[in-house]
């Protein structure tokens, strides 16, 4: 079944390799694991912060997971796998990290990687892993069988499909999606998270890294994932990718908009950013423009509105954060919440209060397109 092709076990205990990136945006995979599955982290490997705990370094993380300087120190905390939790520039394994992987393989650890370059395709590492009887799991490897989007997701007229979208890349779309699922379940709703990126897959135990799928089939994979999640849930929360405003990642964003055919959107935004991630010549557009763009593009398949904004206020104190959220609401007319500080209950309230007649009409119009 699509999404289960990686065989990631739910009981894996990771030694998380970040080596210099724990306090960096490029370490967001580590941040996600520490925030949402801390019991699955045995230790973090980052010599810069060795001797401290993750809660002292990563904002929004409360887990007191130890940080170590070497593989040997990490082994003392009984991990079952090494998780390469950083995607360095170019998505390739830094030469200095090869020794970490060989040492882990010698210790009998599986190696799970979220990088674009596949470890299992590296002859040296693959041979070593085979000799030691351990697995090299490339989380971004797509399934063998994929197809085009067909529009079947539009037949799910009794399901709510929420897609998280962003004003920029790496702006908290996975975090917002997971918080929404938590809040929906607390409200008594049957909700399921659809992972479309490497961190989400490790957390959920299933999914497809859509950015590694051939372009023609990205929307088709998104559709299949939604259909599968809808089998046992009336709320399907899809992890967004990239941003329609980002010149490098807009293609996967559009594929999710049209393949998942959301009924509702939640916009994620970091007000501290002036320019797009790694693209300083491009400014982050204003929120009203971003909202218009997402609603117009989604409407080609099925009309959907931005029902809430997940705002990152980690750089502000409580009072300043509250003032910022009020200002964002005033500018957009949409509820604004920091889901890391306050959870997703208020956004879920906005979703649950949406007029059923409007949703039904939107679904019919989408099906007629």
What are the key terms here?
single chain, alpha/beta, Rossmann fold, six-stranded parallel beta sheet, 35% helix, globular, disordered C terminus
Task: Please give the domain count.
Answer: 2
- Give the radius of gyration: 20 Å
Neighbour order of strands in the largest sheet? 3-2-1-4-5-6
Order of helices and strands: EHEEHEHEHEEHEHHEHEEEHEHEHHH
**CATH third-level topology of the largest domain:** Rossmann fold
Low-confidence stretches: 360-369
Q: Approximately how much beta-strand content do the residues carry?
A: 15-25%
- In this structure, how is the largest beta sheet organized? 6 strands, parallel
CATH superfamily heading of the largest domain: P-loop containing nucleotide triphosphate hydrolases
Number of alpha- plus pi-helical segments:
13
Number of strands: 14
Describe the model.
The chain is of the alpha/beta class and 369 residues long. The chain folds into two domains: 14-138, Rossmann fold; 152-368, P-loop containing nucleotide triphosphate hydrolases (Rossmann fold, 3-Layer(aba) Sandwich). It is built from 13 helices and 14 strands. The protein has helices at residues 28-36, 71-75, 98-106, 123-132, 173-186, 198-204, 218-229, 250-260, 287-298, 318-332, 339-342, 345-352, 356-368, and strands spanning 14-17, 41-45, 67-68, 81-84, 110-113, 136-138, 160-166, 191-194, 235-238, 264-269, 275-276, 279-283, 305-311, 336-337. A six-stranded parallel sheet has the order 3-2-1-4-5-6, with helices on both faces. A six-stranded parallel sheet has the order 8-9-7-10-13-14, with helices on both faces. The chain has a two-stranded antiparallel sheet with strand order 11-12. Helix 4 links the parallel strand 5 and strand 6 (136-138). The longest helix is centred in the C-terminal third of the chain and has 15 residues, at 318-332. The two termini are 29 Å apart. The relative contact order is 0.12. Mean pLDDT is 93; it is low at 360-369.
């Amino acid at each position: 079944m699509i999404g289960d092709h990686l065989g990631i076990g739910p009981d894996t205990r990771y030694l998380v390799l970040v080596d210099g990136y724990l306090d960096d945006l490029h370490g967001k995979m580590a941040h996600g694991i520490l925030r949402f599955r801390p019991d699955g982290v045995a230790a973090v490997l980052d010599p810069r912060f060795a001797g401290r705990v993750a809660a002292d370094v990563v904002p929004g993380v409360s887990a007191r997971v130890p940080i170590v300087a070497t593989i040997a120190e990490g082994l003392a905390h009984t991990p079952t796998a090494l998780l390469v939790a950083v995607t360095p520039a170019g998505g390739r394994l830094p030469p200095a990290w090869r020794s970490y992987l060989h040492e882990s393989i010698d210790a009998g650890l599986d190696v799970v990687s979220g990088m674009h370059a596949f470890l299992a395709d590296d002859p040296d590492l693959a041979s070593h892993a085979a000799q030691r009887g351990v697995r090299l799991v490339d989380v971004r490897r797509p399934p063998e069988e994929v197809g085009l989007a067909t529009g079947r997701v539009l037949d799910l007229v009794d399901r709510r499909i929420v897609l998280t979208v962003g004003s920029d890349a790496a702006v908290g779309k996975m975090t917002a999606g997971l918080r929404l699922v938590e809040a929906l379940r607390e409200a008594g709703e049957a909700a399921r998270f659809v992972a479309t990126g490497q961190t989400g897959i490790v957390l959920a135990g299933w999914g497809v890294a859509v950015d590694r799928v051939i372009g023609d089939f990205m929307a088709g994979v998104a559709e299949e994932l939604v259909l599968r999640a809808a089998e046992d849930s009336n709320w399907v929360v899809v992890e967004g990718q990239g941003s329609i405003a980002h010149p490098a990642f807009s293609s996967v964003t559009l594929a999710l908009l049209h393949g998942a055919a959301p009924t509702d959107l939640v916009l994620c935004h970091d007000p501290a950013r002036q320019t797009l991630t790694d693209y300083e010549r491009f400014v982050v557009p204003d929120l009203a423009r971003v909202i218009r763009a997402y609603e117009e593009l989604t409407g080609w398949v099925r009309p959907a509105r931005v029902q809430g904004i997940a705002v990152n206020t980690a750089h502000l104190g409580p009072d300043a954060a509250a003032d910022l959220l009020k200002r964002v609401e005033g500018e957009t007319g949409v509820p604004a919440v920091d889901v890391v500080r306050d959870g997703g209950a208020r956004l879920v309230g906005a979703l649950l209060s949406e007029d059923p007649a409007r949703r039904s009409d939107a679904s019919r119009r989408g099906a007629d397109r």
